[in-house]
Structure formats: structure tokens, C-alpha cells
Write a structure and sequence with these properties.
heterotetramer; A: 156 residues; Aldehyde Oxidoreductase, domain 3; four-stranded mixed sheet; 9 strands; disordered C terminus; B: 81 residues; alpha+beta; Ubiquitin-like (UB roll); five-stranded mixed sheet; 2 helices; 22% helix; 26% strand
């Protein structure tokens, strides 16, 4: 099951969805909004997507995982929009007969999701600055919103 | 031919638009699309080498041939998860 | 959090327990009762433990994982007694700042649990035979319960 | 000295008891405990090399010294999870 959603992700429901007497192992991965990144404090995150392509890429990853591992059931859900600290941005859950398969498949899915699925995260830092996260690109040059903000961010 | 290009994330902010129509020669490649974008939006130049092009939901290489009714998008490296 | 229990395991509650704005990743592993093992059909499982030592070994694994990875929170729960098909026998859940840490720590905990924690599984097969599972030991020699059972098991 | 040994899983079934008291020389090792168990319960002999001994909640080696009031247990390889 593949889904993009603006609503909170329900990890319990997804876990139930993949459980089966055909499986001996379930691995659930959750990405959650972390407060501190490289010494900077996040206030909240904003996720944007190119939805049609993101769904196509997620479906391709799901198919690739099912070809590589004996997956009983799998679900991948990514949330979009504003997410507060601690909220779940992404859930990947896989059930397989044996545990190594479930760990390997779940890790493959989240690793590849982060490489190829067109979804972007915008940091809203607690000092008021914002920044699209683009791995490999230098941080945006952005003037501080005010002198007070600039001073505060210098002390971080 | 006229192609319509969707833009996302920092590319959208730098271009200050989420969609642009560009006139390209018939059979133009994705690499030529990036050059045309840089000409239209000079603010994109610093990030141009990192920008990705997708055609009908699949990643393109510089040599991928574009066509008039393709769904084309251009965006910086992804950061979902 | 370490626990042995005869009650059903609640994976949703355990996942909530470890979530934190200090963590960017949660990995949950569930072991569930699989119906088919090496072509034999399981009716149900029975888990027995040496409780005091099992809890001491689980606490030692928890401490070792916390020394190796920057674990925000972790929980390990193993169920004992009779478990029907599809039920959860064990849950391991870990939260960490980054995802590789959570995958590695969860996998370490379940791999080591299966090696060192004194808990034993007894298979109750659908043909009526039973067998303690002891890795490295030959299967028990057990006379069939009746001629009819013996014939049925020959056809498996 | 007299030591009390708890037994679990198939070892308990083969011995047909979950606890046995054994008389061992002072300072006996875990290896000697296993020999004494095999003598008391011949049904344990086929699995004897695989049996594990624990002393006060920690795994013992054949050389681990036993003592009178230790909590001692003997069991086959574990299969939790």
C-alpha cells in the first residue's frame, strides 16, 4: 500500500495491515520530526511533493522490494504539509517469513525513498529562518529577518 | 515545440513560479531544457548542475529527448523521509 | 523498558513509548507466530522462560545497545505461554536521532535476544506432535500419537 | 556440598523434573555438574554436550566453579524471539 497524505500517519493501523500468519517478522520504520539538527533548533517542518511522480516512484520501489524479498505485505506512507516536532513524516512497514528479510526490505525502502522519491523538506528553524533541504546543494543564502534574530542565531 | 515545465521546492522559489512554458527545438534534450531554464531564470544558475529533470514521472538524463505533450518537471535533489 | 508477559503485546503502545522530538527514527520489530515452518503446519506455540535470568539478560542487552548507539528510548517485551497463529511473541522498538542507528540497534537486540535470553519455544504442530525448539539439537524422537496421525504426517 | 539445579524445556522433560538436588564435591565445576546430571538422568545423555549451565543468571563455562547457595540452572539452547 502506497499513500501520500496530509493527515497524521497511524503507525498502529499500518502495522496491523501487514500482520499475517504467513509472516514471522514485521519491521516498522518511522521517520519523526527531530528538534535539533547540527546544533540548530527546528520549530516545524514543511513537506512538499510532486505527487504523481512520487506515487509512481513509491510504487516502483514497492515492486522492486517484492521482487527481491518474499514480502507478505508492505505499506509506505509519506505525510505532506506542516509537521510539528515529534510527528511522523514517513512510515515504512514490511512483513516477511523471516526477520532478516523484513529488516533488509524496510531499510531498502526507506533508503531508496530518500534518494529517488520527489518529496522535499523545508526547515523552519526556531530563529525564524527557513531553508529547503537539498542534499548536495549549499544552504540557501538568506538574510536574517531582523538584527535580533541574527544575534540569537549566532549564539546557537 | 512548446513544453510546459513544473518546478518544485527551491527551484520554484528561485524562479518565483511553479510552471513555465519554454520554446525548444523539436527533439530537444533534457540538458538543453536546463540551459533554457537558466537563461530564463538567472537565479537558477548557481544550482543548475544539481537540478533534476523528470519526463512523465521518470528521471531523465541530459540526453533524454523531450516531446511536446510530455509531463516535464525540474527540481533540486529530494529530501523526503 | 524490559518485560516478560503472559498478556498480548501492544505494539502501538510500545511505539508511542519510544517516540520523542529528540529522535528522528523509530524502528519496531515484531516476531509473530508463523503458520508454516519447513513445510510443517503449526497449530500454536508455547513459550517458556527462566524468568529471573531472562530479565537479567534482556537488561544486559539493553545496556549494551545503549552503550553502542545513541538510543533515545528502547523497549523489549517477550510474551510467554500459549500463542496462536499471527500473535506477537516478541517486540523490540528503538528510537535514535538517525535511522541507521535505529535499524542497527533493533537488529542487534533481536539477534542477541535469540542467542542468549533463556526463553524456549515449543511447537504444537497441526498433526498433534509437539517439539521443543533447540537450535543445534536434533529434533526430538517422539512416537506418533496414533497410527492415523502417523499416516497423516507422512503425507506432509 | 548440595546444589539445587533448575531445569527447563526439553531438559526438564527428559529428566521428568524441573529441579534436582545433587551432591557434588566442594569447588566442583559446571562440567562436573553436567556429568552428575547425566549419571542421575540417563535420558539427558544424548543432549548433554549441548546443555548450558547458568550460575546466578550468567552463563557458565565448564570451568566455572559452583558453590552451595548459587542459583544454578541447566537447559538446552534457547529459542525465544
Amino acid at each position: 500500500m502506497i499513500r501520500l497524505t496530509h493527515d497524521p500517519i497511524d503507525p498502529a493501523g499500518l502495522t496491523q495491515l501487514v500482520r499475517s500468519p504467513a509472516a514471522g517478522a514485521v519491521v516498522l520504520f518511522l521517520g519523526t520530526v527531530r528538534e535539533m539538527t547540527a546544533g540548530r533548533q527546528t520549530a516545524f517542518l514543511e513537506y512538499d511533493a510532486y505527487p504523481a511522480m512520487a506515487e509512481a516512484q513509491l510504487a516502483a520501489l514497492d515492486a522492486e522490494a517484492r521482487a527481491r524479498w518474499p514480502i507478505v505485505e508492505a505499506a509506505i506512507v509519506h505525510r505532506l504539509g506542516r509537521l510539528d516536532l515529534g510527528e511522523i513524516s514517513v512510515a515504512v512497514v514490511v512483513s516477511t517469513p523471516h526477520r532478516d528479510q523484513a529488516f533488509d526490505a524496510a531499510r531498502f525502502l526507506i533508503d531508496r525513498l530518500k534518494q529517488v522519491v520527489p518529496i522535499w523538506k523545508k526547515e523552519h528553524f526556531s530563529d525564524g529562518r527557513t531553508e529547503w533541504v537539498h542534499p548536495g546543494l549549499p544552504a540557501e543564502e538568506q538574510p536574517p529577518r531582523s538584527g535580533a534574530d541574527a544575534e540569537r542565531s549566532d549564539t546557537l | 515545440m512548446i513544453v510546459s515545465v513544473q518546478m518544485f521546492a527551491r527551484a520554484r522559489d528561485l524562479a518565483a513560479t511553479d510552471r513555465v512554458q519554454l520554446a525548444l527545438p523539436e527533439g530537444a534534450h533534457a540538458g538543453e531544457l536546463k540551459d533554457a531554464l537558466a537563461e530564463r531564470f538567472p537565479a537558477l544558475r548557481p544550482v543548475l548542475p544539481a537540478l533534476l529533470v523528470a519526463v512523465n514521472g521518470a528521471y531523465a538524463t541530459a540526453e533524454t529527448v523531450l516531446f511536446q505533450d510530455a509531463e516535464i518537471a525540474c527540481f533540486p535533489p529530494v529530501s523526503g523521509g
